[in-house]
Batch of 4 targets.
Target 1
Amino acid sequence: MKISELKLHSIAIADPPLRSSYGLHAPWALRTIVELETDDGIRGVSETYGGEEPRAALEAIRNRLMGMDPFLLTGLLRDMSRDADALTEGNTSVPGGRSQTWLVPGENPLDQTTRTFAAVEIACLDIIGKAAGRPVCDILGGRVRDRVPFSAYLFYKHAGGGGNSDYPDEYGEVLTPDAVVRECRQMVRQYGFREIKVKGGVLEPAIEIESIRTLRSEFGPEMPLRIDPNCAWSSDTSVHVAESLREELSGGGYLEDPCPGLDGMAEVRRRLLDCDIQTPLASNVAVTCLADVPRARQLDAVQIVLSDPHYWGGLRQVQLLSHLCSVLGMGLSMHSNSHLGVSLMAMAHVAAASPNLTFACDTHYPWQTERDEIVAGGRIQFENGCVPIPDRPGLGVELDYDQLARGRERYEKIAFRKRDDEAEMRKHVDPGWKRILPRW
Ligand SMILES: [Mg+2]
C-alpha cells in the first residue's frame, strides 16, 4: 500500500465574535481538510489549521509523501524533525519561543513541523484503520473508554453568530455573569456536558470571579469548573483569583495559564501552596512540546498539561505525552481550536486510547454550525457530554463533498488568510486595543 494522492481543501467556517486575552475571533475561522489516497483506493482524511501557511507546509512535503507506505510514520517524523532542527537552530526571533504566550496555536513557526506531521499522521491512521477494518483508537493500541467526555467551553462574546449576517446568533451577547450562566445552561441542555470551562482574561477579574461563583451556585460542585485567562493576569492577580475561587475551582477544576511563562506559574503555585490552596495549574501556553514537560514538573509550575494532537505532532505523540504525564505524576487534559467533525473525531479517538486523560477535553464544536459541517450525515452527536466511539473503521467519518465545496467557496470569497484576533478587536470593538500582558 502506497500513498498516491494528496488533496488539500482550504475552507472557511463561520465563527461567532468570541473574546479571549488574544482579542476577538474573526467572523470566519479557517481550516484545511487533508485527503490522502492510496494506490489501492483507500482514502484517509484529517483536519488542521487553515490559511496559506499550513497549506504551503503540506505542499512542501508532497513529493516525500507520494509513494510512501502510510504505516511508516515514525521515519517520516524523524526526517521532518531533522530538517526542521537544521532550519530553526538558534532561531530566537519568535517572541516567547515555542510558547503560545504571543502567538495563537497554529501560528508559531517553531511547531510547524509537528503541525504538518500531525495532519499527515491522522490521515494515515484513518487509512490504516480502514485497511484493518478497525477504529483508529484500536489501531493506537486499543481504547480504554468507549465514550470520550468533553467540557462546556464558555466564552464571553459580543452579539452575532459570525460569518455572514444570516448565520443565527445562537447564544446572543455574553458579557455579564448572568449571561455566562444562561450560555452554560443552554450548552449543557443541548450537549449534556458535565464539566465547565470559562475562557477568561477578557473582563475585570472581579467580574470573572463573579461569573465562576454564579456558575457554581447554579450548577453545584458536581460540575467541575476551570478558568483560562491566557496569561492575562500578573502573579499577584493570579494568586488573588485562586484565593477568591478556592472552593469553586476545587473538586476536579483547575486554573489554566493564569500568567505567562513557567517561572511565573511556579511562583503562583508556591504562593498558593503557602496558603494551603491546592488548586492545580494547567497549561497549553507555557507547555507546548514534550521537551517542556520535565522543566514544568521540576518547577512544579504545571500540574496538568493540555494536549492537542494538531500541534503536539499527532495522535501517537499525544499518547506519549499521556504516558509521560502519568510517569511524572501530572494530569492530562485536551486543548481545542475552532474545528469541525474530522478534528473532533481525531481528538476523541486519541482520548479514548490515552489512559491518563484525567479531565474532560475542551472543544469549540458547539460554536460551529450544521451549515458548515463537512462530515457526511451532518454534525457529530454528543451523548451526555460525550462523543461515543463509532464501530466504523478509521476515524469513522466520511467527507460530504458538496459541503466541502461550499467551504472552499466561502474561503475563496473572503479576504481572511491568517488569524489575527488583535486586528479584529481593533476593527470591531476598540480602535486603540493592544494585547498587554499582564493586563491585570
Ligand atoms: Mg488554554
Target 2
Amino acid sequence: MEREFEGRRALVTGAGSGIGAAVARRLAVGGASVVLADVRPEGIEALAAELGGDAQPLLLDVRDEEAVAPAAAGLDVLANVAGIGSTQSAPDTPLEVWEDVFAVNARGTFLTCKHAIPDMAARGGGAIVNVASVAALVGLRNRAAYCASKGAVVALTRALAVDHVGEGIRVNAVCPGTVDSPWVRRLVEEVGESLDALRARQPLGRLGTPEEIAEAVVYLASDRAGFVTGSVLTIDGGLTAA
Ligand SMILES: NC(=O)c1ccc[n+]([C@@H]2O[C@H](COP(=O)([O-])OP(=O)(O)OC[C@H]3O[C@@H](n4cnc5c(N)ncnc54)[C@H](O)[C@@H]3O)[C@@H](O)[C@H]2O)c1
C-alpha cells in the first residue's frame, strides 16, 4: 500500500478545504503527483507548501470548461470533491441557487470527467472517484437542489462506469454522511443548530472525519479496487441504515 500512487498524476478538485484536502494529502503521501485545484487560493497554497514535493496548487473553477479542459489532461486519478450546498425546500429555492448548485456539483463533475477520460483511455486506464452525498440516496429536509445535484452525480458515475469499462477506466462514487468539515461548521451556524445536536442525531454519536472519507476515496482510486466500478459507497456512520 505504501507509495501505491508512485508515478501517477492526480487532480483533486475542492482540495483547499475539508474532504478534498484530506484526499489530496493521502494521495500525495501515497506517492502521487497531485494537482490541488480549488476556486479559492488560500487552502491550496497552504496545502502545497505543507506537502512540498511536486504538489501543485491550481486556481480552478470547475464550472469553467475552458479552464477545466487543460487541467484534466494527462491524469491517472481524478477525484471530484468540489461542491456547494443549498438550504431550502423547492418552493423557497431561487432559480439561481438551483443553477449554481447544479453548476458546481453536476456540471463541474461532468466537465472534469469529460476532459479527463480521453487521455485516461489513451494511457490505458485510470480511476475517477466522485464525492456525492447521502443526499443522493435519501431526502434531506430543506436541501432540494443539493439532493437533486448529488443524485445527478451518482447517476453520472454509473453511466460513465458503463461507457468506459472497456478502456480500463473505473468510475465510482462515495456518499458521505455528516462530516466535520469547514462546510458543516458554516452550515450549523447558518441554520442555528449546535454541533452537539448534530452529533446526537448520528447513529454513531459523532460526525465523520474528512480523513475517514479520504480513506474510501483513496481505496477506490487505487489498484486495490481493481474490480470495483460503478459502485456507490456510503460512509455515513449508519445514518441511512436507520
Ligand atoms: N461535509 C459533509 O458533511 C459532506 C457530506 C456529504 C458530502 N459532502 C461533499 O463533500 C465535498 C467536500 O465537502 P467539504 O465538507 O469538504 O466542503 P468544504 O466547503 O470544506 O470544501 C469544498 C471545497 O470546494 C471548493 N469549491 C467550491 N466551488 C468550487 C468551484 N466552482 N470550483 C472549484 N472548487 C470549488 C471550495 O472552495 C472548498 O474549498 C462536497 O462535494 C460536499 O457536497 C460533504
Target 3
Amino acid sequence: MALPKLPARIECACGAVHTCDIKSVVCGKNAVAAVPELLAEQRALVLVTDGNTAPLAGDALAAALTEAGHTVHRAHFDTTAVVVPNEEAVAHIQAQLTEEVTALVGVGSGVINDLCKYVSCEAGLPYLIVATAPSMDGYASKGAAMILGGMKVTTSAPPPAWIVGDTALLATAPADMLRSGIGDLLGKYSCLNDWKLSALINGEPFCQEIYDMTAACADAAARDTAAILARDEEAVGRLFEGLVVVGIAMALAGNSRPASGSEHHLSHFYEIVGLQRGVDYLAHGIDVGYGTLVTCRLRQMVRTALPESTPFDPQLWRLKVGVVYGPTAPAVAELQAKTGFYDEAKRLERCAFIKENWQQICSLLAEAPSGEEIAAMLSAAGFTEREYYRTYGSRMIGESIVWAKDLKDRYTLFNMLEDLGVLESLAGAYVKEYL
Ligand SMILES: [Zn+2]
Ligand SMILES: [Zn+2]
C-alpha cells in the first residue's frame, strides 16, 4: 500500500476540500537515521522518552542529534509503565521548553505521541514522532487523546510534521503492541459502518473516498495478520503504513469519524471507568478488537426484528449515569446536554425515520462483517474472548454496551439502539448469550 502523496489537498467528489498538514512520512529500514536531517533547521529540541523507549532508541537518537549539532533537552518519564496523558505529564514536558526550542521529538507510541501533539500544539511548535510500535492509528491524526479532568477527551491539535517508522525497530515491538495495531485496524469495519449509519439518519457529511481508503487498511491488516505476528519486517511496515493512512484519513475528514465509532467508545469506557475503579484495562487496539466483536454481533442481533421503541426517562438516565460514572457523571451529563441526543422531540423524529427506513438500515448494518467473521479475524491475530471476559467480567461488559456512548458526542449504533429504547435489553441479551 502506497502512502498518499503529501501534503494532500483534495477537491473531492463528496463536495468537500480535504487537506492534510503532514510534511513527511519516512518508513523503512533504518529510517531513524534520517531524523537529524529532517530536523536540520531545528537547532534546539525537546526529546520525549520513557523507560521503555529511551534504551530502545531515544538515547541513541539523543546522541546522534547532539553529534549533528542540536541542543537536546530531555523530557524523560522514568517509568516502564504506561504514562497517563494527564495534566501532570503535560507539565513534565513543558518544564523543558525554553525559548530557544523550535521543535519537539517524541520516541514512543500512543501516549508519547499524544503528549507531544498536545504540548507542541499549546506551544505552537512542530513535532516529530519516531514510532516504536505499530500499535494504534493516532500517529497522523489531528487530535490528541488525553485524560484531562478525569475525562477521556480528544483535543484538537495538528498532526506531527514528520512521522518516522523504522521497520527494524517496529518489528521488535512487544507482541501485544502488534496485536493492538491489528485490532485498531479491524475496528474500522465497525466505525465505518457507524459513519454510514449516522450519515443516513442525521445527514452527517460522508466521503466515499475516505471510507474506501480506510476500509482498504482494515482489509490489509486482516490479510497480513500471520506475517505481522511472525515479525516479517515488510508486513509490519505495511501495518504501520495502514495505521498512518488511517490517521491521514482522519486528518482529511477533519475529525476522527473514519476511524472511531461504537467499538472505540467501548475501549474508552474501559479506560475511563477502569482508571476510576482501579480495574486494569487492555491496550487500546486490543480493546478495540474486542469492541468490534461486540458491536458486529449487536448489528446482527438487532436486524432480526424491528424493535418497539419505549419512551426515554431523563431522570432515570441521570440517576444511572451517576452510578456508572461517579465523579465523571457531571461532565458526561454536560456533554450529552450539548449533543442534544436526549432531546425528546429530536429523538422521536429520528425514531420515525429509522422505522420508515428499517429495511435500508438493516442492509446497511449487514455491510459490516458478521460476528463470526470478526471472531475468526481476531482469533487469527491471537485474541481470545476469555482474555476479554476475564479482564472486565460480565457486569462491566454489559454496562459498557449501555453507557459507553455517553462519553462521546458521536452518533453510532449504540445511539440508534438507545433511540429505539432497546439498548439495555440488547445488552442483557448479549451478556446472556456470550458471557
Ligand atoms: Zn484507535
Ligand atoms: Zn471527500
Target 4
Amino acid sequence: MLLANIELHGEDYFHVMSRLHAHLNPRTYLEVGVFRGASLRVVSPSTQAIGIDPNPILDEPAGPNQRVFAKTSDDFFAGHDVVAELGGRRIELAFINGMHQFEYALRDFINIERLSTRSSVVLVHDCYPLDAETAMRERCTAFWSGDIWRLILLLRKYRPDLAVHTISTPPTGLGMIFNLDPSSRVLADRLDDIAAE
Ligand SMILES: C[S@@+](CC[C@H](N)C(=O)[O-])C[C@H]1O[C@@H](n2cnc3c(N)ncnc32)[C@H](O)[C@@H]1O
C-alpha cells in the first residue's frame, strides 16, 4: 500500500468512477466483483445496475435500481439474458473487478462487449502492476492486484481497433476501454491460444 501511495497520486478509483458516472450518465451499468458494495454506491440512483459476485457482503442494501446476483460472472453470463435483465437495454458502462487472474477478466470483457454498444465504456480495476509480488497470479501478499495487467497488453495486441487506456488512479490503476465492437469474435475465437500465450 505504501508503494501504491508513492507511485500513484490524485483521486482514488472511487472518485474517478464517481466522476465518470456523473459525466457519462449511463442508463445501464454492470459490475463484476461487488464485495462490500463500495463501487456500486457511486452509481447514480437512476442507473439500472447489476452487480455480480459469488460472495457479496454488502455494507448497505443495494439501491432500488440495483440488483446483486450471488454467482460467478461466468455462471451469470451463461444463465441470464442480460439485456432483458437491464429492461431491454444493452450495457452502457461496466466495471470488471472480480477474480484477479487475467483470463477471468478476459472472459468478462468478451461477455460484456457482446452485450454493449459502440459507445459503451468498460472499466477494469488493477491494471497497474506495482511490483512482481503483488502482480502475480497467485496471491502471496495482503495487497494483491493479480495479473489483470495482462488483459491490457493482450487487448492492445489482439484488438488494435479498441481504444485502451490506463488511468494511474490509486491504489492499482483503472483501465478504460472505448470503441467497442459487439460483433467482434477475435478474442472469443482465440481464447485458449491467447491465455496460453
Ligand atoms: C476487490 S473485490 C470487489 C470490490 C468492489 N468492486 C469495490 O471496488 O468496492 C473482488 C470481488 O470479486 C469477487 N469475485 C471473485 N471471483 C469472482 C468471479 N468469478 N465472478 C464474480 N466475482 C468474483 C470476490 O468475491 C470479491 O468480492
